[in-house]
Amino acid sequence: ELISSLRSKLQTLWEERELVLSEARECTKQGEELEAMVQDVCKPNEFERYMMFIGDLEKVVSLLLCLSSRLARVQNAMTRIDGNTDAEEKQSLNERHKLLSRQREDAKDLKENLDRRERVVSGILAKYLTDQQLQDYRRFVQVKTSLLIEQKDLEEQIKFFEQQLETLEKSIP
């Protein structure tokens, strides 16, 4: 029953992932249309700023999600430390925790910088775009970020359930 339940949950997650990937493709298409429009109306240096912001948006959000995920795994491992855990493993976990915490703080600084750059880009675009086009741009940035987060979350859940299923299947003769 448990194996069947895990397989069913995985099937649901795979279907959700396909929907999110479909939404991501649609978002990419909207991004390409927006890019073409921005290139038509902006000066070359302003367009370059826009492109750098859009490129960095995905990188910074992905970095933050990755570091947060890795940090959570280390924290989970740290909660399983007991009297039988050797000192070397405890020290290794503590060092990884400190390193990942510092890296995540650095990534948060990058995100704050990215947010400032978004305001600059938004100000540039406000000079050229209609209110509706500006709303479309802001919606695009918001949807792109949400889809990245949703994709990462689904990948983590799928990975977790696949590991659970594999462990369970190995434990049953």
Automatic annotation (TrEMBL):
One Pfam family from the record: ASD2
PROSITE patterns registered for this protein in UniProt: ASD2
Positions of the ASD2 domain: 1-173
GO CC entries: adherens junction; apical junction complex; apical plasma membrane; cortical actin cytoskeleton
Keywords per UniProt: Coiled coil, Cytoplasm, Cytoskeleton
Localization per Swiss-Prot or TrEMBL: Cytoplasm, Cytoskeleton
InterPro entries per record: ASD2_dom, Shroom_fam
GO molecular function: actin filament binding
Primary location: cytoplasm
Coiled-coil annotated residue ranges, if any: 90-120, 144-171
Taxonomic superkingdom: Eukaryota
BP terms from Gene Ontology: actin filament organization
Entry annotated with the keyword Ribosomal protein: no
Family: Belongs to the shroom family.
This protein's name: SHRM1 protein
Species in which this protein is naturally found: Fregata magnificens (Magnificent frigatebird)
